[in-house]
Amino acid sequence: MGNNRHSESNFRHYETTNRTIILERCWFLYLKRWMESIYYFNYIYFMDRQIVHIDLDSFFVSVERLIHPELRGKPVLVGGSSDRGVVASCSYEARKFGIHSAMPMRMARQLCPEAVIVKGDTEQYSKYSEIISEIIGNEVPLYEKASIDEFYIDLTGMDKFFGCYKLATELKQRIVKETNLPISFALSTNKTVSKVGTGEAKPSGQKEIPLGTEKRFLAPLSIRKIPMVGDKTYNLLRNMGVAQISTLQEMPIELMQQVLGENGTVIWKKANGIDNTLVMPYSERKSISTERTFDKDTIDVKALKGILIGMTEKLTYQLRSEQKLTACVTVKIRYSDFNTYTMQCRIPYTGLDHVLIEKVSSLFDKLYQKRMLIRLIGIRFSHLVQGGHQYNLFEESVQQIQLYEAMDRIRKRYGKDAINRAEGMDFHPHHLNAFNGIKT
Ligand SMILES: [Mg+2]
């Protein structure tokens, strides 16, 4: 008993000190945020930003050609070969037949029967994506990994020492030299104009859109080139008689807002070469995670695995709703003696439950060697990139993907715990006594 009271007072002491530290930090953070907002205001409105957009040309096809040189010069389609598969990437030779990515494979095959169809290899694509991230990370201070093969780089301020266009050109040359993959880029004052620029520079090209020429550069292009314009918006605008960006530029912003709501305003701004969004620094440490502490320590492996499945499902749902993929899984165990162990492994980019559940489970098996009572388990997904739409490109099991999509729709509508795997049920709160950890 005496011992208990002692530790309780210790705990209180710890808590007070902690609170003081937190208060001090709050004040500091407030000041920091205030200074940052002044900086960003200046940065956006008064500095000429220098933003590079880099994109690998038909990335999946190019990687396939590195591994299988016989594919060079041929029309190549990468994607699911089943009738319901879609084209994930196609070579420029295939594009001449009117094929584009996201087109149903069956239609692509009709357009170009001689095309070589390759089932994707996420492992290789992830490997090259990491190599390119590393090269860029070594060369520039701030970059955003927008997808598996696409990057934004902020070179603002670098022009004082070295021309930004020259810097970007050298970076491109370095990537080509080290990976042998074709790449294109564009440099302008914002992300939208640079992204459109890269599209115009392809393949294996580069382009600079100097300050003040953004509107002129965009004017003759099709409205489809604006990053936010998908099929639905495109058809709507076409029905209004809008085909070229120049027509959008001349329309009043209010009309766009009336027709397309808030999106209309953003599209109008983009069409006029206005985009203040920042390059978001890419960090491999950026992650999502979940953990659970048990009230009663446990060695029930079956129950633990069920909880891990439930936790993985929760995180994969989060990944997919944020349109993200992960390339690194970490499992954490804390034993009843408070010793904590983690184990992680790199994986090809994925957002699929069954792939991640298997990884988590095998990591847990490797990690849980001690057969001691467990106090806490946790899972973390890191090395996240945008590109949720790419998660299903090479999956053969179409039914599985459709199942996930259906489950996600149900969760979106009826709440996160509306539907789950039977094995993971132990994890979900409404099947547990409040905060009781494991069902007994
Ligand atoms: Mg690309």
Question: Could you please describe the fold and organization of this structure?
Answer:
The longest helix is centred in the first third of the chain and has 45 residues, at 2-46. The relative contact order is 0.10. With 440 residues, the protein is α+β, with helices and mostly antiparallel strands. The strands form three sheets. The chain has a five-stranded mixed beta sheet with strand order 5-6-1-7-8, sandwiched between helices. Helix 5 (122-139) packs antiparallel against helix 6 (164-179), helix 11 packs across helix 12 and helix 13 packs across helix 14 (353-367). Helices cover 46% and strands 19% of the residues. The chain folds into three domains: 49-208, Reverse transcriptase/Diguanylate cyclase domain (Alpha-Beta Plaits); 212-279, DNA polymerase, domain 1, CATH 1.10.150.20; 287-431, Dna Ligase, domain 1 (2-Layer Sandwich), CATH 3.30.1490.100. Residues 1-16 and 429-440 have low confidence and may be disordered. A hairpin with a 7-residue loop joins strand 2 (76-79) and strand 3 (87-90). The structure holds magnesium ion (MG). Magnesium ion binds at residues 55-56, 59, 149-150.
How would you sum up this structure in a few lines?
With 440 residues, the chain is of the alpha+beta class.
